[in-house]
Amino acid sequence: MNTLDILSYLPRPRIAEFSKGHTVYGPDRPAEYLHLVISGSVKVFTTARDGRHLLLRIVSRDGLFGECALVPGEVAARQSALALDRTQAMSWSAEEVQKRIESHPKLAMALLEHFAASNCRLEDRLKALAGLTTGPRVTFALLQLARETGVPRPDGSQRITGLTHQAIAEYVGTSREIVTSEMNRLRRLGYVSYTRRHLDIFADAMAERQRQEAGEGVAREAFGQAGTA
Description:
2 domains, four-stranded antiparallel sheet, 9 helices, alpha+beta, 45% helix, Arc Repressor Mutant, subunit A, Jelly Rolls
């Protein structure tokens, strides 16, 4: 089911607005609402016991986040959500969602399907990144983000707003300096163009180049999955 199916089971929502850099929830501010992004984008990450951040996903328009409000516990307590730019979202309290599930059991199935698909994408990403060296890992991440959150542009690129080099580094699991070096290389090749406000990715051309260079095996399979076709 898509988000429209989920919306059909939920009550009229409140509209929340978050400024750029606003912490929607985190260890010191537990999640209380399930959110659906109307505009803008949010990064969802978890904090390890040693303080390191692992970026789980970037949520853009029509994406859901805040599911940890429905299943509180130690894992949920380590999750955080941060607005990457000015963001608006429909929001429902955990109590509202739970009551609605009691009267509309299909809502539970719709939510399970949505977040199960999200977890599958995360698993595919981790498997692919484990088999790639650092440079291709950055490229893979950009392709996946373009496919999942990019907005098509007239020139054939996919535009992502609010995505910093630090956020990409957290997504890949490397340093910001390495990401910046790889981004500069991709810009020289004409596959990306970026400013402080947005990043344009020519995903189809970049994916095809990577597939040609990858040969056989894990790398070729990874870029086949990440390509936007």
